[in-house]
């Protein structure tokens, strides 16, 4: 408890109160030896690639995979990561050897809005300040690798441009892990001949780089190198693709990423090992942690709990249609994180959110919000997986509200539901959820992706739009029709589609809450992520470089002479 | 030996042939316990700050300080770092507990020209590929910290600009650790109101950031924080300074640098501990490794061997006039690295260098080059220190050439000189040099900086210009006169001057070899590095963001499935 206010301790206070074990001791019971690790201090380690090769080859384990997803997010956060971490702890409490795999946070957003991305309360991963800052340097390696491609590209253009690259058709922006909005649109190469050729450019957040997606899908150095080489960075004046291979950057970029490919392992507050590795956008990319972490974790555990970004219409859809396909995996059960306040938010059709309203009891508003929950449940069932709703309980929720949700799930939807108190109670607060998920795992499931990769590009887009988003149809604007035609001609049509849509709504209009009907999805552009192996389908503007708010969290941060940090969480 | 060509093995082959010890075992005999270290794998560690506090407080050691500097550099490299590393090894061979402190390389330049910055041959620090790539993340932390200041600044301007910052008077560019010349001059903030206020901007190399200078001068977290807070990032419309404190970024920036402040320790190929920490430009900054590394190393060793950047007119001058003053240190002896080919290069007045000519015997050209060597020796003696000339031997040098240099030093200059073969023979090749330096250390010395900090700004500039560079006087152009007047009015005149001059010549004209006479130094601008605590004096253009050459080294790099790297060295 906080000594000052007698209230619930902060995440940082909880983290500081825990005596962590050496990470080598934490992972040893799961079959990772000290020699399998590259230590980063005593609490963080990377798993060596030869150890991964050995473990995945030796393993005949068919571990159970539990995916954590959520209803349409509110700006307040529903607690998907905290549920993932707590659930991993809970499975261990009921006698299952469970591991956790989650994304690693970006540094940039840390300085914008207060609050870390490593769980919270008694369900967080440690050392939380490291994980939210430099961690093991993966994001920095990605930033450098991304910008090395940019540098090699502009240097090629400056030197003789033998590839005849069209300077207005460069598809590789620069990257930074900082919420620095003034870099979104810039002009580079000013200052005369000696600095090269001026052109329009812009920066994206490192997490939005295709390199991040590639890192999260590669299963070895060789695979990583091949994927990097295929990335399309520009077109020449004939309209032919220019790849990373073409500008001779593949080897050097792979060298920069060789350590970033190794999954990071840390521990939760209760000593459950957690892989925290990779963090691609769930918007222009697939939004889940690395496949290599999933691979090694599922070879070591009875149960692997992992998480997909944003709501189930984005993260889970991509997990099922893209990640499971590429990784040859299937989820044995899915838990959909809901909260009383998120249901009320959708019930009020509230925009922006009014926190006081959301924290006051209102069963009627809550019930109006069920339409959002219901569509998520119904969508997930289309993949043939068992769903358990997790109600992540906040202190302000009334018992009646929570019971209303449980009754709705069980009686109206016919799905299991459990209150989750992992934030306040750690693994113990997730035991009921873990037990219901165990039942779900044991039930027969019949998983399948929603579309065939060999379907036409439009067919795949339309399947997601109508089956998942609830659109009546799809309209193509801007370059979309031409893009689809060109990509089909290039034989780049037999891959999954990675839909880029606002996460604030099932629809492509961020202001529409609940479960919007009677609308049409508007596709504006389709482009290949050839290294990742999917087509990105843009619907409306995508913000790939956020900005800082008027009162950035950074302004309230401090560190004392003894390295105690304040204001970070 | 290289199995392929029978010739001298490459740096990488030599590095791979060595079985390193665990870094904790390497430093233990010097008094660093395992608990004093934060391990980064088995070969790299950071020293904890509380250990440094304990060690420097407990120590009554007055270790001997040997500075390694050089004559005016040639594009071929004279081997200053290799001499520093080899000399540390040599001192250990003659029974002295010697430690080494050198700068850590920037990542950016690695992709431009082949060749690492961690010594070479049998006098290199390991693990050389790590040290030249991400190492322990210090450069990445600096890049992030630097750009957080930029982001906070532009966000302040966008939100309400309450400080009334003049957008055309921002003195804080952005930073990147990549030789990406198209970012030298850019326009940011395009795209309308939502992205902020458009303005001209540019990127510098991270090593050129004032944060790097600050990190290398701070002796604690508290000192680091205070220095960061004082950094001047812009001026308001009244011409008053705007600092990092003013934009509320001090705490967050310090948090990002808390680990980077901890010195890195690794080992040489012969197992001598080497601190590799900090790498400020020797041009707009002071160009030596961190003071905190010097502090801890000199508390642990009998002899500390350290290195200053570029020729003695830049690096050594700043070491004596700035670093020793700030760090309350004095060099007990200086070794000036010369080479036969550098002497011939100056003797030919060659520009650009002709390698074939330089590798052919020519005693006459060599002798003409002595004027460069002589001025360096004479300059160093003005600080009251003993000088030993180290002739870094290359395979092509003839015995007569080497002997001619030794005779010249001993007979004409009256300084000791020794041939150094540390590249080919490791520490054994530096024993004679170490012995002569031991004599120099034992001789009486009478060290003093060359000017008083209380002298006027112009007096300090003119002292360096005439006494060190050999100029006849100084002319002030551009804003220089106004700058000096304003800085004097602001009481910012009682600090050392950090001269920014080309390193290719004693003069401000890069093409003038030897020891130019009859010229006048042209000062164009003077600005404060308030966090570092000196004034930067610009003479001509300073390149703070290099570019890649036509055939970048990156294009020849590769990595195989077993993580073996090629083309990096």
Automatic annotation (TrEMBL), chains A, B:
<dbReference type="GO" id="GO:0005524">
    <property type="term" value="F:ATP binding"/>
</dbReference>
<dbReference type="InterPro" id="IPR020628">
    <property type="entry name" value="Formate_THF_ligase_CS"/>
</dbReference>
<protein>
    <recommendedName>
        <fullName>Formate--tetrahydrofolate ligase</fullName>
        <ecNumber>6.3.4.3</ecNumber>
    </recommendedName>
</protein>
<keyword id="KW-0067">ATP-binding</keyword>
<keyword id="KW-0436">Ligase</keyword>
<comment type="pathway">
    <text>One-carbon metabolism; tetrahydrofolate interconversion.</text>
</comment>
<dbReference type="GO" id="GO:0035999">
    <property type="term" value="P:tetrahydrofolate interconversion"/>
</dbReference>
<feature type="binding site">
    <location>
        <begin position="74"/>
        <end position="81"/>
    </location>
    <ligand>
        <name>ATP</name>
    </ligand>
</feature>
<keyword id="KW-0547">Nucleotide-binding</keyword>
<dbReference type="GO" id="GO:0004329">
    <property type="term" value="F:formate-tetrahydrofolate ligase activity"/>
</dbReference>
<keyword id="KW-0554">One-carbon metabolism</keyword>
<dbReference type="Pfam" id="PF01268">
    <property type="entry name" value="FTHFS"/>
</dbReference>
<comment type="similarity">
    <text>Belongs to the formate--tetrahydrofolate ligase family.</text>
</comment>
<dbReference type="InterPro" id="IPR000559">
    <property type="entry name" value="Formate_THF_ligase"/>
</dbReference>
<dbReference type="InterPro" id="IPR027417">
    <property type="entry name" value="P-loop_NTPase"/>
</dbReference>
């Amino acid at each position: 408890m906080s000594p000052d206010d007698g209230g619930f301790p902060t995440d940082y206070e909880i983290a500081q109160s825990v005596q962590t074990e050496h990470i080598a001791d934490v992972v040893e019971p799961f079959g990772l030896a000290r020699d399998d690790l590259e230590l980063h201090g005593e609490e963080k380690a990377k798993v060596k690639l030869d150890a991964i090769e050995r473990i995945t080859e030796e393993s005949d384990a068919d571990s159970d995979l539990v995916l954590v997803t959520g209803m349409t997010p509110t700006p307040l956060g529903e607690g998907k990561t905290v549920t993932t971490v707590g659930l991993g702890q809970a499975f261990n409490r009921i006698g299952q050897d469970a591991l956790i795999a989650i994304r690693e946070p970006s540094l940039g957003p840390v300085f914008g809005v207060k609050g870390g991305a490593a769980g919270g309360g008694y369900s967080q991963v440690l050392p939380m300040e490291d994980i939210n800052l430099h961690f093991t340097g993966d994001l920095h390696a990605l930033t450098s690798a991304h910008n090395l491609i940019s540098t090699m590209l502009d240097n090629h253009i400056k030197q003789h441009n033998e590839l005849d690259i069209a300077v207005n058709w460069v598809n590789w922006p620069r990257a930074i892990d900082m919420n620095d909005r003034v870099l979104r649109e810039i002009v580079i190469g000013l200052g005369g001949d000696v600095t090269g050729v001026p052109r329009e450019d812009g920066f994206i957040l490192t997490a939005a780089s295709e390199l991040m997606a590639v890192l999260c899908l590669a299963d070895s150095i060789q695979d990583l190198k091949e994927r990097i080489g295929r990335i399309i960075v520009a077109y020449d004046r004939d309209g032919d693709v220019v790849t990373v291979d073409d500008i001779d950057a593949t080897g050097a970029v792979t060298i920069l990423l060789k350590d970033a490919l190794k999954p990071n392992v840390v521990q939760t507050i209760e000593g459950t090992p957690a892989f925290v590795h990779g963090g691609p956008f769930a918007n222009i990319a697939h939004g889940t942690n690395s496949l290599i972490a999933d691979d090694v974790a599922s070879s070591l555990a009875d149960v692997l709990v992992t998480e997909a970004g944003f709501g189930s219409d984005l993260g889970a859809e991509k997990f099922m249609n893209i990640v499971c396909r590429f990784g040859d995996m299937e989820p044995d059960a899915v838990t959909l994180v809901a909260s009383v306040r998120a249901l009320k938010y959708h019930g009020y059709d509230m925009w922006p959110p009014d926190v006081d309203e959301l924290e006051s009891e209102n069963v009627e508003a809550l019930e109006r919000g069920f339409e959002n929950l219901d569509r998520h449940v119904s969508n997930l069932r289309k993949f043939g997986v068992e769903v358990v709703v997790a109600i992540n309980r906040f202190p302000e929720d009334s018992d009646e509200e929570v019971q209303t949700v449980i009754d709705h799930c069980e009686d109206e939807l016919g799905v299991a539901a459990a209150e989750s108190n992992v934030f306040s109670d750690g693994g113990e607060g997730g035991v009921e959820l873990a037990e219901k998920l165990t039942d779900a795992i044991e039930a027969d499931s019949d998983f399948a992706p929603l579309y065939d990769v060999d379907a036409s590009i439009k067919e795949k887009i339309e399947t997601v739009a109508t089956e998942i988003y609830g659109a009546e149809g799809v309209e193509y604007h801007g370059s979309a029709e031409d893009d689809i035609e060109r990509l089909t001609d290039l034989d780049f049509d037999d891959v999954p589609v990675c839909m880029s849509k606002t996460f604030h709504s099932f629809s492509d209009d961020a202001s529409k809450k609940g479960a919007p009907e009677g609308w049409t999805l508007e596709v504006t552009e389709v482009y290949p992520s050839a290294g990742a192996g999917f087509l990105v389908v843009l619907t409306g503007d995508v913000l790939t470089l956020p900005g800082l708010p008027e009162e950035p969290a950074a302004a309230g941060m401090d560190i004392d002479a003894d390295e105690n940090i304040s204001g970070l969480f």
